[in-house]
Amino acid sequence: MLTYDLEITLSGFSGEIAGAHIHAAPARANGGVIIDPLDGGKAFGMVGSLTTYSVCGEPFPPENLAS
Length: 67
Hints:
It is a single chain. The chain is an all-beta fold. Helix content is 0%, strand content 43%. It has strands at residues 2-11, 22-23, 33-35, 45-47, 50-60. The two termini are 18 Å apart.
């Protein structure tokens, strides 16, 4: 099983982030959602004026890799 580390930092958002996800697909194509930061009770947080999200060592099944 592969794992991944992901850190997202945003600025300028005035409201709650209700949806965010990453798709697996070749360039200019739309594939299925493979990473959903809001799934499983995880959430974006605030650090000063920045909106942040980070995870380390999350499982990533190899079949999710786009070809």
